[in-house]
Design a protein that fits this description.
RNase_H; alpha/beta; RNA-DNA hybrid ribonuclease activity; EC 3.1.26.4; 15 helices; two-stranded antiparallel sheet; Nucleotidyltransferase, domain 5; single chain; 8 strands; hydrolase
Amino acid sequence: MASLYVAKRGAHLPVLGDRDIERVASALERPHSAEQVGIELRSLVDEEQYLEHRGYEVRIFTDGSKIEGKVGAALSIWTGEAEAKTLKLALSPHCTVYQAELLALCEAANEISRRKENVFAIFSDSMAALQTVADPDSLHVLAVRMRGALSHCKTQGKSVSLFWIKAHAGLEGNERADALAKAAALRLKKKPNYDRCPVSFAKRVIRMDTLAEWDRRYSAEQTASVTKLYFPIASEAYRIIRKIEMTKEVAQAFTGHGGFSEYLARFKCKESPACICDPYVDESVAHVLLECPVFGSARFDLEVELGQRLDARELPNLMRKTCARNLFLKYAIKIIKEVNKRNK
């Protein structure tokens, strides 16, 4: 989180390459409260309702798309019954559909400010993007830009209405904007119109880099030898352990720290580290669970249930499979309880 904080402050992070994180707009960039435009957002749930609101001089349909790892946005501008103009926008591959939707809305407001007509309607199927724009307290940089453009349109004497429409409901303008946005994502070859890295992407990249460093250190260290029997990869261990109910016996199984003669002897709590099965074999957690003949019957029963031999090399695979993991841990808890009781 510290890396994300400094990145948001504008510091360069090697893991993000040349990408700049999308930061919220400064409060100073917001229009003065006296200049803010009240934005009314209306919903049209079907074609019948849309037909009741098509009598605008200019109708602009917007859409954003992410396909095959590429991102694009588009505008389909209609006057009367015909499409008069289209506009395709490119975004960097790390951008989101949400950003694409906002960029299309923002560009629609800019387009309106450049046109000579006076009555406009903007149609989008992204409720999230429209609500962000309509919220005067939202400081998303694209929403702030759009509200600024709408304020400018108001000073020009222009009327702009915002509508949410249902996606893929057969509305010609919306279907056209959707096709244009997909084409922009797949085929547009130009410098991105917007390339700010969303915070969600930055979090994911920083997290992946952190996990990779964690794995590197975990593998290089000579400690945690017992834990590595089960989890040779630290990042994989994190995902699996979250699903396990951690008891003192489970913790002992994964660490080797507990009531085993080998561990107790290290701290002078027991004279000999040997197991009761053989004075020349240390009683470690791996020994009691995988080798000790004292628990051979219980181990055999587990192997029958698992359909395989219990072997140290197979422990990582057992941990990955929910059913096998639960069976093994049930067995381990039972054995460890007996060992702890004996070594009290």
